[in-house]
Amino acid sequence: MPPRKRSEEPQLYNRLTLLRTERGMSRQELADAVGVHYQTIGYLERGEYSPSATLALRLAAVFGLPMEAVFSLTPFRTLSEQVYGTQESS
Amino acid sequence: MSSPTRTQRRAARLDDPRFESTRTPRVRRRLVVAMCGLLVVEAGLFLIAERAPVPFAVGMAVLLVAFTLCLGALKGSTRGVEELPAHALDERQWQLRGEAYARAYRIGFALLTLELAAVAVWLVADWPAPGTNILLGAILLPFHIGIVLPTLVTAWHRQV
């Protein structure tokens, strides 16, 4: 199988913003906890950068969650949908 | 607690929040254009060096100050991603640096090929030998471009 080009990489979805704000952490605090620049947390949260497996595991460990609870190749269900079973109106 | 290393001090200086105003894409690109302008002025000064040595010397002195200030601002705007060693960067910055160097290599290769082509045309056409000033410029300009090219490419990048 030929190597996949970077432009063909699927988008990686994450719940970093939700988990970070839920725990009352700033980007700087989360960045310090995983050893990256605070700017990188912003890029991760906006989905503009996909982390390495090591960084993804470190981020998940900070929140005490398995990696698949923080990162996914398919979009996460919204909080209202998960808690109340309501669909977001488009 | 051990004192910070030279690299850590350099990284902290380049990450200084006082440079924040230069870190927007618009300002970074303006700085890139300004630096390119300075390189063009430098090339122009080499052309007049033999005919007007005093304006050449004064111009070079002014240019040196402007060059230093502009390069300092550019490096602050990129947080020194292109010059800091691997252990001072995180994985995203390291990746960005790799992309910037790959692009700078292609641009540098194209510029050097153009210069080589110009020399070849000069020799084939049997034009008169250029003056010392032109030769000096032909050596110094690529050197200066080589120094600033990775910084220019990094600063032009949208996500630095």
Number of domain units of chain B: 1
Give me the count of strands of chain B.
0
Estimated structural class of chain B: mainly alpha
Structural class by SSE content of chain A: mainly alpha
- The percentage of residues in β strands of chain A lies in under 5%
Reported for the largest beta sheet of chain B, the result is:
none
Measured by residues with Cβ under 8 Å of the partner chain's Cβ, the largest interface is: A-B, 10 and 7 residues
Radius of gyration of chain B: 18 Å
* CA distance, first residue to last residue of chain B: 31 Å
User: How many distinct helices of chain B?
Assistant: 5
Mean pLDDT of chain A: 89
User: Shape of chain B, please?
Assistant: globular
| H/E topology pattern of chain A | EHHHHHEH
Counted beta strands of chain A:
2
Q: Treating each run of at least 4 consecutive H or I residues as one helix, how many helices of chain A?
A: 6
The largest beta-sheet of chain A arranges its strands as: 1-2
Structure description:
The complex is a heterodimer of chains A (90) and B (160). With 90 residues, chain A is mainly alpha-helical. Helices cover 49% and strands 4% of the residues of chain A. Chain A has helices at residues 16-22, 27-34, 38-45, 53-63, 67-70, 79-84, and strands at residues 13-14, 71-72. A two-stranded antiparallel sheet of chain A has the order 1-2. In chain A, α2 crosses α3. Chain B has 160 residues and is mostly helical. Chain B has one domain. Chain B has five helices and no strands. The longest helix of chain B has 34 residues, at 91-124. The mean pLDDT of chain B is 93. The chains are: A mainly alpha (90), B mainly alpha (160).
